Sequence to fold (300 residues):
Amino acid sequence: MNARVNPFRGTGIALVTPFTASHAVDYPALKRLVNHCIEGGVDFLVALGTTAETATLSPEEKHQVIETILEASAGRVPVVQGVGGNDSAKVASELKAGLTAGIQGVLSVSPYYNKPTQEGIYRHFCFIAEATDLPIILYNVPGRTGSNMSAATTLRIANAVPHAVAIKEASGNLEQSMEIIHGAPAGFDVLSGDDNLTLPLIACGAHGVISVSGQGFPRTFSQMVRDARQGNMPEAQKGHYAMLQFTQQLFAEGNPGGIKAALAHLGILENELRLPLWPVSDALRSALHHSVQQLKHHES
Fold:
């Protein structure tokens, strides 16, 4: 009997890292964002993912970001930490060193840039899994890594690693996602990595999402996910279509530029990114402002 259980279901949020005008980490804004998400009904938080501009953070800043998120969340929802890279030994070393007390899971991206074979991807995850007992969420995002982790490889890892509990599937390929859902061992789930594909994926058997847009309007987005998971598709469709254009705009000029512009419109943080990322164009910022006002009206 398989005792594996995925504790990360429903709406997870890939948190941004707020910056001040001088590009220092804005910890008070990060606390506001955490509270905004939790009060909006999300189920778990993901720290130090791609959306967090983690590549531009120093080791000291990463540590303080984690501490701030854990302090602000105060045990109300689980917190998952992104720990990944394209050097398997380095990722394993970071995991062996131990994560901050309070972190309840790991999100680990398929190795990027190196473009490993499927065998290399499989062996990477088996290798790093030996370095931690925490539940692991695999992360497939071919648009960023340069290689796709096939459904067969995902299922092979799921069967070989008992504490691999889910995959954040961001290939945009519904058939690939369905293959994983259909073939997965008990306790291994698919989480959508594409916000606008969350509803169809849940309809196919996925168990949630790790979302970017949900931190803008967590109440609308997390209710959509709850409705979908409960089989209330007419209500879920209302939430899905309320968020659809907003989410399309968020990614029109790259992530996290869009969501930071939206969160600035909401008064949660400043619209600041670290190079090489740059704020979205004035035209997109204006369009996002309009969508934000519409969604605020939808939630009121």
